[in-house]
Amino acid sequence: MATHDPLEGLNPPQREVVLHEGSPLLVLAGAGSGKTRALTHRIAHLVGARGVAPGSILAVTFTNKAAGEIRERLRGLLGESGRGIRAGTFHSICVRLLRAYGDRIGLTREFTIYDEADRSQVLKALVREANLGDDTFHPNRLVHAMGVLKSRGIDPRDSDAEVPGTAGERKLELLREYQERLTQAGALDFDDLLLVTVRMLRQNEALTDYLRTGPFHHLLIDEFQDTNSVQHQFVRLVAGGGDRLMAVGDEDQSIYGWRGADVSHILRFERDFPRTRVIKLEQNYRSTGNILKAAHSIIAADKTRRDKTLWTDGSQGEPVLLRATPTDLDEARFVVSEILRLARVENRRPRDFAIFYRTNAQSRAIEDELRRWNLPYIIVGGTRFYDRAEIKDALCYLRAALSPGEPVALRRILNRPARGIGATTLERVDAIAREHRVSWPEALGIATQRPEITPSSRKSLDKFLVWLREVQATAGDVHPVALLERLLGESGYLAALEKDDDPEAQGRRENLDELIRVAGEFETREPEGTARQFLDEVSLVADSDDVDEQRDRVNMMTLHTAKGLEFPVVFLVGLEEQLLPHVRSMNLPLALAEERRLLYVGMTRARERLAISYADARVLHGERRPSVPSRFLADLDRECAKFVGVTSLGSGQYHRPAAPAAPSIQRSAFVPPASKGPSQERAIDRETSQEAVRKLLPTDEMKPGMVVFHPTFGRGTIRGSSDYGESKKVLVQFSTVGLKKLLVKQANLGVFAD
DNA sequence: TGACCTTCCATTTTT
DNA sequence: TGGAAGGTCA
Q1: Contact between A189 and A171 (Cβ < 8 Å)
Q2: Distance A171 CA to B1 C1' (A)
Q3: With A753 labelled, which of A175, A219, A459, A720 sits at a CA distance of 20 to 30 A?
Q4: A456 is near strand B: CB distance < 7 Å
Q5: Which of these is catalytic: A40, A89, A227, A253?
Q6: How far is the CA of A422 from the C1' of B2 (A)?
């Protein structure tokens, strides 16, 4: 029984979404129109009122975060009676299918998942071996070509596979070799997960029928505008006629065309699934009237789109601010002074603010300015936890333990920690593999018997392999925490880290502890879960650096990362030709339209206040050049906006508006939380801190625990130091940017006078 | 093996 | 301009 009436508090179209049955359903849901609400309430209604078995419902999303949110809301709506409802990403669902049924198409149960870095690694090796140093065969191009092919559901070995452009034939050959290597290694890359699943379903009608009538009977697909061709094929296979299919999407928010997402899937839904019922959700619950109006004026200028107008019965709110500044530095000053002003006048916290930009490189100028004012910030989607070297090492240990035939992980861990197995040995193993036509892991075994490998390397290689085989023998039955601890302990990895006096080693240990903690959480959640399942799960996680509402920090991210999020105050910077629209998209009509949608997505993230800005000159690749306001700004409805410093929109003329005034308050509103000691309790802004810093700290006086000041990073505490002769380093915990390793001779730290 | 130097690259990146 | 990655040297 439902613990909550799923129809309560819904508007009429949302109710329709919940109640509709008997034919395919397409929900066109505008930004902030409560689509997740409609989707989860529909599921609650299926289970509670229509008696549908939870085990026959599948909700598919693009991110783990979205899937988690759906599960979370269902728990609230259904409680225990919702157990068994599946919600996951395309990729995670496919992994589960392949682990369960992959043997039907000859796939090993121990297959390993290669991420983008692994793909790039393998392709790089191929290019190197083939001696194709040419730019035409730049690994990035091959990585891209591979993505294009596979997102359409084409294996490079298929007879109809083609790579366009120069040397397409040769490139295709390389991609085929890549695919061969993966097959040999028992590995699938991200795109393969989808592609291979679709092929498996095509070849196994009985299995597809079972899924269609059983666990995937009721199918709900989120963000349908972002599906690529293989994903679309998957949906069509599993949905059958689509009578129990619901797709939710918004063509205006399609921003992943460059990754193979195809808006036409949503546009031709009614043709693919006849008798489709279309419901539009147009009431917005997020933004003020002015923000909606401004966003609409931008998106409506795309004449090729089907019109849809969001409305709100909330207030008009403040006008959207359009601010022009002379340079990118002034733009950063404008953003930060506005943050400080709103913090003071409207009592807002750092976490209320978000700054969006088109390219990552744009963050730097703003970061510098935020630090100068001691404003804590986080770059969302920046360095990812699972991309860190020590985490990858740990995961490669897991991979090597669980997939004995797989070379990439094995190669990575072989000499980490250092075991005296260097590049020369690796090359010789490569040679052995070629000579004997055996896989790389097999060649390693042979190498322990071969004279060309130095005796010491042979010995340590042998020792390592004996140990690894021992772990492999039982790895399948061990829980993740135990296996991780065993691998990192017995391999000497942790011991080496303990001994390492590099100040960063401490951070690495903490990261590994965090990974073990994550594994522990997994065990609590899935008491029966194996290490293999844990590895699958973390292999498919993109960012652990999610928007973290607990920590009170200003949020910075690219426009792409902003999708799906919302913030009370949003700054959208760099509204300039060549940036937004980006140079690489300016001459392609489809890509240009996507840039416009990107701007629209960014604007509709704002709840209460939205400020858009551009600079008339910007430093790019170390060169200062004039810039022209974005063409999109010409479409901005002036009725809902306030222009400051803007003199010539759309004319393309260079002009020079006034620089913004310096921030009007002298003291940062935010006290860094980590401060200790009575005299350091107060906030420090640039002026006072410079005054407070009495002298530069001499090298020999740098001691852990000292509170210091750095001209760029602000206040911090020394956490450790190391001595490498000339290059002595200190590790400092800053309140703005976290841990930083600084070379002592450049550290430039000051001490406070109290 | 690691420190240091050189060279290359610079759009976005749900998994 | 700055960072990452690869190469070189001790």
Answers
A1: no
A2: 36
A3: A720
A4: no
A5: A253
A6: 13
